[in-house]
């Protein structure tokens, strides 16, 4: 039995995530790396296969956008790639490749090419801050 005095009175949490995987997800990317990258939630294998664990959370496409079926997969892969860069698992030189993966996935999933191009331009121009090593887009909050 836990002593009631030892029970934590504060709740530590993060906010900002909109989506959470209900099944493991795999996708083939054009990225290649010299070794497999394995983290708790997302993996990138040498052959370009990405794996996202059931329960992985992401925020979808950011900015003046709307989420729909044509950008959901691309946003997931893009967010996972930026996360690997932030964690220092791969270098910032992979940013461009993940930006292109977003564009490619959107076209494959039915987005108009001009819309996919617009999303690519947005992340190309404004996404650098979101993939800086050590940057935490969802810092730990505490209540009360």
Provide a brief overview of the structure:
This protein is α+β, with helices and mostly antiparallel strands. Helix content is 30%, strand content 16%. A hairpin with a 3-residue loop joins strand 4 (37-38) and strand 5.
The total beta strand count reads 8
Give the neighbour order of strands across the main sheet: 3-6-5-4
- Please tell me what the overall shape is: globular
Structural class: alpha+beta
Helix run count: 3
Q: Give the oligomer, counting copies of the same chain as homo and different chains as hetero.
A: single chain
Describe the sheet with the most strands: 4 strands, antiparallel
Tell me roughly what share of residues is in helical segments: 25-40%
- SSE string, helix = H, strand = E? EEEEEEEHHHE
Count of separate structural domains = 1
Poorly predicted runs of 5 or more residues: none
Rg to the nearest angstrom? 17 Å
What is the mean pLDDT? 92
- Please give the alpha-carbon distance between the first and last residues: 25 Å
Strand content: 15-25%
């Amino acid at each position: 039995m836990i002593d009631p005095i030892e029970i934590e009175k504060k709740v530590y949490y993060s906010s900002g995530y909109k989506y959470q995987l209900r099944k493991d997800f795999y996708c083939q990317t054009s990225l290649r790396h010299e070794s497999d990258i394995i983290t708790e939630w997302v993996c990138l294998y040498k052959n370009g296969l990405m794996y996202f664990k059931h329960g992985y959370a992401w925020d979808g496409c950011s900015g003046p956008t709307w989420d729909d079926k044509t950008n959901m997969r691309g946003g997931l892969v893009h967010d996972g790639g930026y996360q690997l860069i932030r964690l220092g698992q791969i270098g910032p030189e992979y940013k461009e490749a993940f930006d292109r993966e977003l564009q490619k996935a959107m076209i494959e999933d039915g987005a108009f090419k001009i819309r996919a191009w617009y999303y690519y331009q947005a992340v190309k121009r404004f996404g650098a801050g979101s993939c800086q090593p050590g940057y935490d887009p969802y810092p730990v909050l505490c209540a009360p």
